[in-house]
């Protein structure tokens, strides 16, 4: 019962694409996968010619495929980028030393220079020592914070203009869920963005933002890309695991859910008045405050049509507490 | 007795660090065929899986997040649990649940 490819209609299909449910053959899948990442890069203007781009490389499937595809697309579409692999060695025995061997193999295979920075070198503490000191609970917090800075410091050493990471659609949807469950609204605003904003040290972006993890694994498998897949020995009970399990259960029911969650995260924006998170142009707190200040508190409790009336009335000045007029009635 | 070739990409830890296994699936005397559903149950029940079955099997199927390939094709295209196994089929399980 082998199916034919939906794209070329002739070859044997080997994959059902999660975004569309369509069966694809190997060659058409490669072409579609590569072209979609290219479209993401171009439409979001992630790079400019001459950029020195550091690829965050852990040896895992995402960064391995990212390194491979960045080289492929840079060559094919002449982006004109200088590519580097940038690895962080946390100092976890039996885990990071093995995965770094994979990154070195990737360096040799793709011909991309590699820079490794280690926690021991930057901070004087390896992750093994940190876990010995703080225990297994919460050690992921240390590791995550140190790794983020280590990537920035490594990128500075390389004089890189940009860092790309292998975060994929599943990772971003997980993060949206986690921040939603925690009620962490500032992070919820940032986590769905494809690139960091200008105030951070070295710009970062996620070319795989819309790419499903299943497709990254399948691409690596069919292309026979070498990657390291063992779980971090300190993290099996990290909180992210729960969001991940939930997301995988959702994906099994309806694969499109992953992209839909990302779009939900993107839909939140900052209130135009106070800058905090809102699902409308002006947040509810500012709407209520406006009603109070104008002596019309009930107006802001009303529906959308009343909010539109209020928006039409609103002055460009920032909200200030209204001074009661002399002799005004108490009601 | 039907023989299958099973590879665990990233799931080696559950299979005593073996990357590939040949599995003989015993059939009952009246049984003429077996499906993927039976293979998955057999892997757990027969002790081929060395530890933590909940990381591999959930209800009657593989845990979501584990990809399955049958003869190099996505099992979603081959009927998933209902795929009828044939001698020398190659089944690959790839986990995407690792992190860190």
Automatic annotation (TrEMBL), chain A:
Residues 312-331 are annotated as: Disordered. One of its GO terms (cellular component) is cytosolic tRNA wobble base thiouridylase complex. GO terms for biological process: protein urmylation; tRNA wobble position uridine thiolation. One of its GO terms (molecular function) is tRNA binding. It comes from the Eukaryota. It is an enzyme of class 2 (transferase). Its main location: cytoplasm. Residues 53-244 form the tRNA(Ile)-lysidine/2-thiocytidine synthase N-terminal domain. It is found in: Cytoplasm. Pathway: tRNA modification; 5-methoxycarbonylmethyl-2-thiouridine-tRNA biosynthesis. InterPro entries: CTU1-like_ATP-bd, CTU1_C, Ncs6/Tuc1/Ctu1, Rossmann-like_a/b/a_fold, TilS/TtcA_N, tRNA_thiolation_TtcA_Ctu1. Keywords: ATP-binding, Cytoplasm, Nucleotide-binding, RNA-binding, Transferase, tRNA processing, tRNA-binding. Pfam families: ATP_bind_3 (PF01171), zn-ribbon_14 (PF16503). Its EC number is 2.7.7.-. ATP binds at residues 56-58, 62, 88, 166, 171. Residues 270-299 form the Cytoplasmic tRNA 2-thiolation protein 1 C-terminal domain. SUPFAM superfamilies: Adenine nucleotide alpha hydrolases-like. Belongs to the TtcA family. CTU1/NCS6/ATPBD3 subfamily. Plays a central role in 2-thiolation of mcm(5)S(2)U at tRNA wobble positions of tRNA(Lys), tRNA(Glu) and tRNA(Gln). Directly binds tRNAs and probably acts by catalyzing adenylation of tRNAs, an intermediate required for 2-thiolation. It is unclear whether it acts as a sulfurtransferase that transfers sulfur from thiocarboxylated URM1 onto the uridine of tRNAs at wobble position. Prior mcm(5) tRNA modification by the elongator complex is required for 2-thiolation. May also be involved in protein urmylation. This is Cytoplasmic tRNA 2-thiolation protein 1. It comes from Caulochytrium protostelioides. The lineage of its organism: Eukaryota, Fungi, Fungi incertae sedis, Chytridiomycota, Chytridiomycota incertae sedis.
Automatic annotation (TrEMBL), chain B:
It holds the Pfam family Urm1. Pathway: tRNA modification; 5-methoxycarbonylmethyl-2-thiouridine-tRNA biosynthesis. GO terms for cellular component: cytosol. The lineage of its organism: Eukaryota, Fungi, Fungi incertae sedis, Chytridiomycota, Chytridiomycota incertae sedis. CDD domains: Ubl_Urm1. GO terms for biological process: protein urmylation; tRNA thio-modification; tRNA wobble uridine modification. C-terminal thiocarboxylation occurs in 2 steps, it is first acyl-adenylated (-COAMP) via the hesA/moeB/thiF part of UBA4, then thiocarboxylated (-COSH) via the rhodanese domain of UBA4. There is a cross-link at residue 100 (Glycyl lysine isopeptide (Gly-Lys) (interchain with K-? in acceptor proteins)). The gene is URM1. Belongs to the URM1 family. Keywords: Cytoplasm, Isopeptide bond, tRNA processing, Ubl conjugation pathway. The modification 1-thioglycine is found at residue 100. This is Ubiquitin-related modifier 1. It comes from the Eukaryota. The keyword Cytoplasm applies. HAMAP family: Urm1 (MF_03048). Acts as a sulfur carrier required for 2-thiolation of mcm(5)S(2)U at tRNA wobble positions of cytosolic tRNA(Lys), tRNA(Glu) and tRNA(Gln). Serves as sulfur donor in tRNA 2-thiolation reaction by being thiocarboxylated (-COSH) at its C-terminus by the MOCS3 homolog UBA4. The sulfur is then transferred to tRNA to form 2-thiolation of mcm(5)S(2)U. Prior mcm(5) tRNA modification by the elongator complex is required for 2-thiolation. Also acts as a ubiquitin-like protein (UBL) that is covalently conjugated via an isopeptide bond to lysine residues of target proteins such as AHP1. It is found in: Cytoplasm.
């Amino acid at each position: 019962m082998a199916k034919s490819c939906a794209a070329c209609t002739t070859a044997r299909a080997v994959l059902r694409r999660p975004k569309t449910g369509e069966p694809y053959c190997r060659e058409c899948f490669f072409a579609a996968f590569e072209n979609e990442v290219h479209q993401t890069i171009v439409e979001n203007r992630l790079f400019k010619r001459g950029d020195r781009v550091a690829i965050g490389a852990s040896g895992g499937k995402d960064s391995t495929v990212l390194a491979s595809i960045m080289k492929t697309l840079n060559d094919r579409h002449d982006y004109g980028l200088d590519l580097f692999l940038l690895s962080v060695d946390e100092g976890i025995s039996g885990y990071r030393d093995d995965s770094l061997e994979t990154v070195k193999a990737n360096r040799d295979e793709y011909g991309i220079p590699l820079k490794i920075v280690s926690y021991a070198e930057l901070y004087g503490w390896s992750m093994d020592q940190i876990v010995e000191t703080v225990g297994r609970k919460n050690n992921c917090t240390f590791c995550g914070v140190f790794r983020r800075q280590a990537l920035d410091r490594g990128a500075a050493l390389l004089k890189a203009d940009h860092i790309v990471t292998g975060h994929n659609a599943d990772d971003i949807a997980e993060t949206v869920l986690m921040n939603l469950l925690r009620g962490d609204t500032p992070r919820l605003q940032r986590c769905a963005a494809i690139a960091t904003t200008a105030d951070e040290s070295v710009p970062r972006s996620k070319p795989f933002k819309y790419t499903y993890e299943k497709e990254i694994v399948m691409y690596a498998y069919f292309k026979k890309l070498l990657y390291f897949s063992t779980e971090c020995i300190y993290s099996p009970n990290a909180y992210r695991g729960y969001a991940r399990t939930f997301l995988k259960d959702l994906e099994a029911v309806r694969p499109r859910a992953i992209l839909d969650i990302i779009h939900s995260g993107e839909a939140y924006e900052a209130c135009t008045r106070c800058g905090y998170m809102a699902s409308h142009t002006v947040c509810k707190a500012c709407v209520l405050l406006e009603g109070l200040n104008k002596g019309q508190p009930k107006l802001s409790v009303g529906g959308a049509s009343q909010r539109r009336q209020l928006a039409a009335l609103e002055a460009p000045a920032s909200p200030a507490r209204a001074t009661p007029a002399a002799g005004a009635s108490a009601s | 007795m039907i023989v299958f070739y099973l590879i665990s990409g990233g799931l080696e830890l559950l299979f005593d660090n073996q990357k590939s296994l040949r599995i003989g699936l015993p059939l009952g005397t009246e049984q003429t065929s077996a499906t993927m559903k039976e293979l998955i149950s057999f892997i757990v029940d027969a002790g081929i899986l060395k530890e933590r079955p909940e990381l591999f099997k959930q209800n009657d199927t593989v845990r979501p997040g584990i990809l399955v390939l049958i003869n190099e094709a996505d099992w979603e295209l081959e009927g998933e649990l209902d795929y009828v196994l044939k001698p020398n089929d190659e089944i690959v399980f790839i986990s995407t649940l690792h992190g860190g």
